[in-house]
Structure formats: structure tokens, C-alpha cells
Design goal:
single chain, mainly alpha, 12 helices, UppP, cell shape
């Protein structure tokens, strides 16, 4: 994989990580179209780290409050106003445990090397987005409970399948479980933090193998492209969630999925 191919993959990752069209699925399709062939999954994880930085910066105030509340709890100095942040932290952990349990079953299947399965999963994501606007959730963070965390965590686990959008599926699940639009988006991206960190830990053992296939310059280019375009796409997605417009991406995913089923091998 050369420098410009890595840049292109970084742009695709940055845009599709937040726009609900499946970043992992688009990386699979782009590698097939460009004829790049098989590269270690850790390359995708490195690009995900760039978009993780975007999440940390974008939601820094909420993350700082949750971190401060957790540290005070560990030091047995909790304040009354820490209750909601501690509850939210617990729910993120609970949802992540469910995600990990499901992901550990699916991940060994190595579906990131199966473009046609990815194409079919695009159609699944399109269906999820098509019904997202029907949800009328009104529950804020103060009303989110274990049921919400279990549902969203389970759906996030299924999003390990390339073509199933993590953001699209978890936001849709959150909305239909009763969470309000604004909080559904924020909860989804808070869940992405441990998910990406976990994938990074699992795949870093293959980092040496990656160095044999991708030059440091190409990797740096892809990382920076993913970072810049990630900021732009997350800003757009937040506005679309609030406006209930996620369904528009199904208009893109349906023809893409149908094309992939017949054109990719």
C-alpha cells in the first residue's frame, strides 16, 4: 500500500466512522476496489485511533466530568453532583462488557476479508437507518438504565461485522430503547471509546507485521487524514441526529450494498 492509497483510506475512515455508513465496511470495499489485498486488521485500528482522538476532543467536557467523578469515588470523596456521572460511567462499562462478549464470538470469523458479506451488511445498516426517524425517545442521561445499556451494548457488538455501522446501529438502538436524540448520539460515542481501546489492545501484537506492509510515512498520512475528516464528519452527524435525518444515508447504502453483492468477490 502506497502513501496516496493510505491517505485515501484515512479520508474514508474519518468520514465513515461518524457518518453512519460503516467505516470498517468502507475500508473493506476500498481495499478491494484499489486492489490493495489483505493487510493486518491493526491498520484499521490505527486509523480508528485517530477518530478516537476526535471523540475525546469533541466530548471533552462530559468525559472530564465522568473522569473527575470516578477519581473522587475511588478516593472516597464523592460529591452529590457526581451521582449522574458515576451512573453513566457504570452504564458505559456494562454496555462494553456486553459488546466484548459478542465481539469475541464474531471477530475470529475474520469477516473483514469478505467483501460480499460486507455488502449485505450495508443493506442491514440501511434498514436500521430507515427506521431511526420513527423513534420518539425522550429519556435523558438521568433516566438511562441497565436495559438501555444492555440493548445498545449488544448492538455495538454486532457492529463488529464490517458493513454494520457502529454509530448508526447504536444510535438507532438507543433511540428505539427510549433515549432522546441528543443523548443517543452522545451515549453512542462514549461507548466507542472503550470499544476502540479494546480493539487496539487486541491487535497491537500485529504491529510489527503492519510495518512490513505499510511505510511509516504512509501510515502517518492515513492517520492525519482520518483525524481531519473525522472532525468534519462528527460535526455534521451531530446536527443530523438532532434533526432526525439519519435515514438519508440509507439512500446511499442501498445501491452500494446491491452493487457490492454483484461486483465484489
Amino acid at each position: 500500500m502506497n502513501f496516496w492509497q493510505s491517505i485515501l483510506l484515512g479520508i474514508v475512515q474519518g468520514i465513515s466512522e461518524f457518518i453512519p455508513i460503516s467505516s470498517s465496511g468502507h475500508l473493506v470495499v476500498m481495499r478491494a476496489v484499489l486492489g490493495i489485498g489483505e493487510i493486518p486488521l491493526v491498520y484499521d485500528v490505527v486509523l480508528h485511533i485517530a477518530t478516537l482522538i476526535v471523540v475525546l476532543v469533541f466530548f471533552r467536557e462530559r468525559i472530564m466530568r465522568m473522569t473527575a467523578a470516578l477519581l473522587r469515588w475511588c478516593a472516597r470523596r464523592s460529591r452529590q453532583e457526581d451521582a449522574q456521572e458515576l451512573k453513566l460511567t457504570f452504564l458505559v462499562v456494562l454496555a462494553t462488557m456486553v459488546t466484548v462478549a459478542i465481539a469475541l464470538v464474531i471477530r475470529p470469523l475474520e469477516l473483514h476479508n469478505e467483501p460480499r458479506i460486507t455488502a449485505g451488511a450495508f443493506l442491514v445498516t440501511a434498514a436500521l437507518l430507515a427506521v431511526a426517524h420513527l423513534a420518539k425517545g425522550r429519556t435523558g442521561f438521568d433516566g438511562i438504565g441497565r436495559r438501555h445499556a444492555l440493548v445498545v451494548g449488544a448492538v455495538q457488538g454486532l457492529a463488529v461485522i464490517p458493513g454494520i455501522s457502529r454509530s448508526g446501529s447504536t444510535i438507532t438502538a438507543a433511540l428505539h430503547s427510549g433515549i432522546s436524540r441528543e443523548q443517543a448520539g452522545e451515549f453512542s460515542f462514549l461507548l466507542s471509546i472503550p470499544a476502540i481501546l479494546g480493539a487496539m489492545v487486541l491487535e497491537m501484537r500485529h504491529l510489527g507485521e503492519l510495518g512490513e506492509m505499510v511505510s511509516p510515512m504512509a501510515m502517518a498520512g492515513g492517520f492525519l487524514a482520518s483525524l481531519v475528516f473525522g472532525f468534519l464528519s462528527l460535526s455534521l452527524l451531530v446536527r443530523l441526529i438532532q434533526g432526525g435525518k439519519l435515514w438519508v444515508f440509507s439512500l446511499y447504502l442501498v445501491p452500494l450494498g446491491l452493487w457490492g453483492l454483484f461486483a465484489l468477490t
